């Protein structure tokens, strides 16, 4: 059976799932989980610059020794990559509207 509005989430938030999440409810738990990614991005979990580079590049020791980028440059690079991916995702909508 096809739905009038397609589901964007691969599961349904039924009464059973809401009961599992407890007293706080599903909204509070989901928002708390997402909020942690806003205030504690993965590249900021390590305090010094070389640790940030190792975390950003997957902990590869050869890159860890060679790269001397500063933390600010790594953040700028990752932000640019995310922006680039987002524009690629939105390109199809721009083409169909224009």
Structural commentary:
It is built from five helices and no strands. The protein is mostly helical and 98 residues long. The mean pLDDT is 68.
**N/C terminus separation:** 33 Å
Radius of gyration: 20 Å
| Overall SS class | mainly alpha
User: What ranges have pLDDT less than 50 throughout 5 or more consecutive residues?
Assistant: none
In one word, what is the shape? flat
Average pLDDT score: 68
Bin the helical content.
55-70%
Q: What's the number of structural domains? A: 1
Strand content: under 5%
Number of strands: 0
The largest pleated sheet is described as: none
H/E series: HHHHH
Helical run tally: 5
Architecture blueprint of SSEs:
Layout: H1 15-20, H2 25-39, H3 49-56, H4 61-66, H5 71-97
Short descriptors:
98 residues; mainly alpha
Summed up:
The chain has 98 residues and is mostly helical. It has one domain (15-97).
């Amino acid at each position: 059976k096809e739905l009038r509005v397609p589901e964007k989430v691969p599961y349904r938030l039924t009464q059973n799932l809401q009961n599992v999440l407890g007293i706080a409810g599903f909204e509070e738990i989901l928002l708390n989980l997402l909020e942690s990614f806003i205030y504690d991005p993965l590249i900021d979990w390590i305090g010094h610059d070389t640790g940030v580079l190792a975390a950003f590049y997957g902990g590869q020791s050869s890159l860890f020794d060679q790269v001397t980028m500063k933390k600010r440059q790594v953040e700028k690079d990752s932000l640019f990559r995310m922006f680039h991916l987002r524009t690629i995702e939105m390109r199809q909508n721009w083409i169909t509207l224009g």
